[in-house]
Amino acid sequence: MTSKYIFYIDFDGTLANTSELSPGGWNVINAYEASIKDIFGDVGLTIYKDDLGGLKNRAPSEIIYLLLQKGQEKNLRDELIRSAEIFYSAHQEQLEGLMSEGLGASFAYDTEEEIQERVIAELLVRQKLSKLIPEIGERFSDGRTWPEPFPGVIEFLNQMSTRNQDKISLIILTSGHDNFIRRTLKTWSVPDDHIHILSEDAIRGMSLPEQMWLRAKPGPLPMVLAYGDELNRQDRDETAWREQGLLTDRQHLIIAPLVDDVQTLIIGDDPKNDGGQVLIAGSFAWFNPSLKESSNPADTGIVFTDWYALTNLLNSSKSRKGIIEGRPIMEILTNQISRESEGVRLYGVTREMSRG
Ligand SMILES: [Mg+2]
């Protein structure tokens, strides 16, 4: 195995400030709301906002699943489905081509049968992307473009993917979409050949596992699939991962701890959905620029307010020596963080260190 370290990095709110309104007035939050209203009408929008509490960092399939479940409880499911069918018939053609080849769920349904939940999730994603993709790279009056990277993100991605590419794998692990992310990286002029993506597009079309809690962060499927892709890139054949008890095949997940010879760092802005993945593997680096309090922090890791601070820490001569020696990632980081460190500090117990 050539890569000893894997960094799983969230996208929205971590690398890109997608909650800022674009020059055309869209962000991830209102694009979801408008798309739900387009597809399900006011009935759907009311359930989404009042009963589900809005986006809450949820994956699109999870939103559709919960929306229809709530609809069922309120005897509104048939109405929601009918509304989605009408929208699908009217807009299916213009929504072709928004998803990269081989990604996403099937966008075809047999009109003899009820439109499937998975087709509706695909519909939601495409409708949302039809609003957001034209905004990528659009200029604000002050010359900035949308969506902006957080300060230091470009330097982090450039440094980690060039200087350390043989030791550190960078994987963007996100409930967003490949197409949106690749286009955004392009507008940032970040060379992305060494940046891998495992997005919701890889999961939406899968029939198994059925349980939604397994399929979206902090459930294990995103990370396990990303890890499987990583092994494939490193020319490990699938037999190797079967032997490690990871997967019986791509659609049959066996929950198993990831192999021990990889050092995993999860970087994200959401202590619950990103940080919760420490139960599968690794430690959490919480990007928390506004120093929010959290009622549900992962019990291990570091918190940082500034990507420059994390980049400097990883680029120090001590870190580079540690990385070459294959030391545990939290040991490398924590040994250098002092009370005086600007922009990055420790919290909780460091799980990887206590595991030895
Ligand atoms: Mg996020």
Briefly, what is this?
The protein is α/β, with parallel strands linked by helices and 356 residues long. The chain is 40% helix and 12% strand.
Task: Record keyword descriptors for this entry.
Rossmann fold, 356 residues, alpha/beta, single chain, binds magnesium ion, 2 domains, two-stranded antiparallel ribbon
Structure report:
This protein is of the alpha/beta class. The protein contains 13 helices and nine strands. It folds into two domains: 5-16 and 149-175 and 217-354, Rossmann fold (3-Layer(aba) Sandwich), CATH 3.40.50; 28-135, no CATH class. Residues 248-257 and 349-356 have low confidence and may be disordered. The longest helix has 24 residues, at 28-51. α6 links the parallel β2 (168-173) and β3. It has a seven-stranded mixed beta sheet with strand order 3-2-1-6-7-8-9. The site of magnesium ion (MG) has 8 residues, from loops. Magnesium ion (MG) binds at residues 10, 12-14, 57, 268-270.
**Can you give the mean pLDDT?**
85
Q: Which architecture of the largest domain per CATH? A: 3-Layer(aba) Sandwich
Please write the string of helix (H) and strand (E) elements.
EHHHHHEHEHHHEEEEEHHHEH
Percent range of helical residues: 25-40%
Fraction of residues in β-strands: 5-15%
User: Count the strands?
Assistant: 9
Strand order of the largest sheet: 3-2-1-6-7-8-9
Tally of alpha and pi helices: 13
Bound small-molecule species: magnesium ion
Just give the CATH class of the largest domain.
Alpha Beta
- Could you say how many structural domains there are in total? 2
Shape verdict? globular
